[in-house]
Amino acid sequence: MPASSSIVDLRVYRLVRGAVILVLTSIVVAGFLGSIPQLDILEQSARNLYFHVPMWFTLMGATILSAYHSVRYLQTGEPLRDIRAREAAWLALIFGLLGIVTGMVWARFTWYVGTGKWWNFDPKQSMAAVLLLIYGAYFVLRDSIEERETRGRIAAVYNLFAVVTMPFLLYIIPRQLPSLHPGGEGSPAFSQTDLAPAMRWVFYPSVLGFLGLFWLLYTQRVRLAWIRDQLRDEPDL
After folding, report:
1. Which terminal residue of the chain has fewer beta carbons within 10 Å of its beta carbon, N or C?
2. What count of other Cβ atoms lies within 10 Å of the Cβ of residue 77?
């Protein structure tokens, strides 16, 4: 297994960390205090766009990265590849859960205002929940297999199945069904009704900021997992 210093270039890490802190601080300030256009139905709740949607972009990026390392693990058998696949999938699940929660709150005060509902099985909501269950099962599967190499191979194959479902569950299937969520049938995403041009100056940097935050957390978790593996394999270190 490689030395800890080879897992990430510390200069790059510090540069990305500084950029992420600057960008996300600016996004938080703009999201809560900046002025926004008054969009129909959304009104002030449109501020959630700067946080809710980037979380789903981050989930997509994380699942693709996780699948890439699963492929590489099947090709090489390198334990570090399995670690990277696992940690990327874990963070994808976390960002997905945050996306579900922020979506529920947003829906509660726009689509379902006055009804008391937090969840109404809208196709986009339901398909996103199914995707999170699939990735939750990935970790249940991992925990059920004790032998490391067998666990890595089976988890990698399952991970490739999981990432294939992602575009169908988040994009293709919801677009074929009537939905209140932008991106569904008859409700185009990123139109002027849900992403006004003036908001794009904050939204797109927010996407980059959340992707950067994912990379920082991912790097930290990979290094920590590597150290744990080293201590388990060589307890005298």
Report:
1. C
2. 12
